[in-house]
Amino acid sequence: MRKVLSLLVLFFLYSTLQAQAPTKLSASEIYHQIEKLNFLGSVLYVAAHPDDENTRLISYFSNEKNARTAYLSLTRGDGGQNLIGPQIREELGVIRTQELLAARRIDGGQQFFTRANDFGYSKTADETLEVWNRDEVLSDVVWIIRKFKPDVIINRFDHRTPGSTHGHHTSSAILSVEAFELANNKSAFPDQLEFTETHQPEKLFFNTSPWFYGSEEAFEEANKQNFLQFDTGVYFPLKGLSNPEIAALSRSQHRSQGFGSTGSRGTQEEYLELIKGTMSEGKEDIFEGINTSWSRIEGGAEIGKILSEVEENFDFTNPAASLPKLVAAYQLVKELDNEYWREIKSKEIKNIIAASAGLYLEAVAENATATPSEEVNVRFEAINRSDYAIDLRKVEISPNNSSIEPDVTLKNNTGWSEELILHIPKSSEVTSPYWLNEEGTTGMYKVGNRELIGLPETPAHTKAVFYLDFNGVEIPFQKEVVYKYNDNVFGETYRSFEIVPPVSVAFDENVMIFDSDQKRQISARITSGKDSVQGTLVLDSGENWKIKPESRNFSIPQKGGSVTLNFSITPPADQSETYIIPKAKVKNEVYSVKNVHIEYQHIPYQTLVLPSELKLAKLDINKKGQQIGYIEGAGDVVPESLEQIGYKVTRISPVDISEASLKRFDAVVIGIRAYNVVEELKYKQPILLNYVKNGGNLIVQYNTNRDLKSDNLAPYNLELSRDRVTDENAEVRFLAADHPLLNSPNKITKADFENWVQERGLYFPNKWAPEFTPVLSMNDKEELPRDGSLLVAKYGEGYYIYTGISFFRQFPAGVPGAYKLFANMISIGK
Ligand SMILES: [Zn+2]
């Protein structure tokens, strides 16, 4: 029983964890929290990715219905593109996780995830469920239903229409429908029942809309027998905002996806189609037939009576007037037998008590970071801004539970402050997203600790508990130990207090490509997490690669300081790939990790501690031409990658595109989605095409067909489509085997298409003028051949090449064949 309790506490208390500026509730916000305190119903919204969720519905249930509302996103969105910075894959997943949490802070929802990894676009649910471990993802959905205990589940997607949308989408609905049945079945995932109980949700809906019917007309005609329809366009006078306005603010947190949205006012209909459970005539409320009042729990009626008085008599000019009743209700909540509601409601009521008293509690570490075994000063602040008699009995910090017992009365608006030393245990884990701590598979994250599954982020490691006495009633308040500082531009800035490794080792790049057997220098940067660190660095690699010297010593006097150590590396004569693993030895411990920091204004500062490695690839590659002009689009690492194989790359600002400026380049390469994001290209397109006509070589990488800034992408007719090949191992057939692109200066063979990552390519053209030569053909399973991945045409004296092949994904992964094919594209006509 003890174990169950601690897990429940962990699950619910830490659903938002990383340091944010503390929320300070106004009287109207306190009132809204009281309304929510008096509603005992829960909704779980289920979909596949960050951005799938309908924020209008989440806000509506949280703010209008006052329900506990959560979004379960099966994945963290690692497979998408990043519109605001260079992070992709796991790092992008961390950003999107935080964007969802930022969205929930606005719309009032909670956030959960499964261990499923967003491995990239998937066309069918069958494929998705093969790459994911179906059973594990299903078990996670069941686990979250058993823990969160929703009365109602709403799926974003339709479980009955595989193939009509992203395979992850349909899979999310299929698994949700299955989990609805399994959550209450004792023989399903019985190991979970050691930690939680079975649970049967009452109803399951599909959040349908005209989009799923293809048109407004088709939707009009749909049989709406099982539909529930309601207006989510409500206005909240307490917030001064309409529900769609809140939803837009929430959705606008998805900045890495460029989903800034503008809210609207007025009626906004939503439709839910009943999939499981029953619904009677009249049907307006998803909670119809479900007791959502305090009387749903044994011993709740009395609490409900007190709290409805608090709600009715709430004084917006003096919320502290509610304190005696709130404290009395808290005492009764603590006595509830129902463990689940006891934990949820005591947490909610404590927040309301603190806010009503104008109580401010904080625990701030003197440094942003510390290493295991270190000591750090923590400063506490406690202040009561009400006339209610509150005594501060004790403050305790964990993990080592040192404490002080001030035993003082917190008088109205008179602050108390004290310091205590926190000893970080030697065994402490470093602060990093928990799902990245172990190596997973393409489709799954590996999480060894069951308690963490489902949580959006790693629970804070260091906590302070303030034990306060409210007129004889002791109430403990738990706070994360944070770090804060004043930023000269942004003002008061909060961060999580982090446990970091004593040393970390980073390389400038993730991959180094050698186009000859000439030795090159590599730099390893060692950063220390504490004062006076001495040690030795060795770089381990594959046998044929020679690294000199064998080891280097380092000494870093100050915490946060770093040194750069240089090594020379000589590749073997033949084509070869290897990984360098750095081993920094300090005393008797060896460290092979790097710290990755992610800093954006809209999300809390993130530190990831990841395995440090550097991929080395020696290519047998030939090149013609030297000078490349690069016009950046939405952002990719293609320029750096081309530099790696010896090209001179000049980034050209779109405004500087002129006939004269392009002349000197052997090829001009256009970055991904440039024609979607660079307005200026509309005016520069004739110049680019003229460059080709006069003998230039223009290589255009993929764009989407929505929002194209120019309607003549190419010198001849070329129509973009949504054709993509998502299987990175799909067979590649040569349509023009004798074409220079496959022969000169590098002979391309099938082997060059081995070991690709994530996908072959996307948004291929599906119609083109006869002047174009399609070079390659490929397709996903059970689809027709797609021939538009690489198209080349002679125009005037030069060449125009359009390619949807995802070089931007292959280059950073060091895929040799991708480099060779690109070198041929640059070399054409030379
Ligand atoms: Zn999606």
Automatic annotation (TrEMBL):
Record-given protein name: PIG-L family deacetylase
One Pfam family for this entry, by name? PIG-L
Give the EC number.
3.5.1.-
Top-level lineage group: Bacteria
According to the UniProt record, what class of enzyme is this?
hydrolase
Which segment of the chain is annotated as a signal peptide?
1-21
Q: Which UniProt keywords apply?
A: Hydrolase, Signal
Molecular function terms from GO: hydrolase activity
Protein's organism: Autumnicola psychrophila
Q: Where are the transmembrane segments?
A: none
